[in-house]
Amino acid sequence: MTAGQIQRDGRLHKIEFGSERIDCFVRFGQRNRLRISVHPDLRVTVDAPAGKSLEDVLARVKRRAGWIVKQRTFFKQFMPRLPEKRYVSGETFYYLGRQYRLKVVQNSGGSVKLIGRFIWVHTPNRHERRIVKRLVQRWYREHAVAAFERRLDICHETAKRYGISRPLIRLRRMTRRWGSSNGRKVILLNTELVKAPIHCIDYVIMHEMCHLKITDHSRGFYRLLSLCMSDWERRKARLEQFGF
Ligand SMILES: [Zn+2]
139 φ, ψ to 5°? Predict the structure, then answer.
């Protein structure tokens, strides 16, 4: 968590609800009513009137805990589903939406190559899964950088017509989202996205690029996104049902 996020979201408080623990960010301000929001990345924020005591606020949140858990369950279905991999021969891996099989071969090298429908891993010890994992992840990362830059160039050809300047890309392995933007010049993409079909990668890039102009998910944002990519909803649905 960054200092900026703490400032924006308020102070963190933890609430127990059955076996669930709810982290919520409480922010006091000039407002009449208390508002609890559950965000698509599962964050819970509470905007409270300045005069209210923290105790009262947390009691209110606790009373709404059932609703909060339900909202989070709803949003969870749209998150990346990334099962644990074992990094052994025969296992399926995706790259740009296509399925490949892992072949782990023992020899002195430490390399990864995509040949035909196979991802060949050469490793000094094929039973050392940690090393295989590191090699495969590094391969994905290198290919993700190249693929995302290529797709960004193509997507930006359209986006620039709407006054969006070309952002920089940063990669990160994220478990909760495909991408995010800081609202300035950088978009953050999940390295795992390189496993998805190209038209889904383009959707995430376009979505984050539109955030450079409009930071929230307002009507204006979706209007801009639809101008840049008329079939974004189809692509989004495809990404959500894509099994990694
Ligand atoms: Zn968004």
Answer: -60, -45
For the question of whether the overall pTM of this predicted structure is more than 0.85, the answer is: no
Q: How far is Cα 205 from Cα 168, in angstroms, rounded to an integer?
A: 11
Query: What is d(CA 132, CA 122) in angstroms, rounded to the nearest whole number?
Result: 8
Instruction: Report how far ligand 1's centroid is from the alpha carbon of 172 (Å).
Output: 17
Q: Which domains does the chain have, with CATH numbers?
A: 3-76 (no CATH), 92-241 (3.30.2010.10)
Average pLDDT, the chain: 89
Instruction: Please give the distance, rounded to the nearest whole angstrom, from the Cα atom of residue 208 to the centre of ligand 1.
Output: 6
pLDDT in tens, 106-117: 988 889 999 999
Whole-number Å distance, alpha carbon 110 to ligand 1 midpoint, is: 38
The conformational region for residue 14 under phi > 0 = left, psi -120 to 50 = alpha, else beta, is beta
Tell me, what's the pLDDT at 182?
74
Rounded Cα distance between 184 and 209, Å, is 10
pLDDT given at position 61: 93
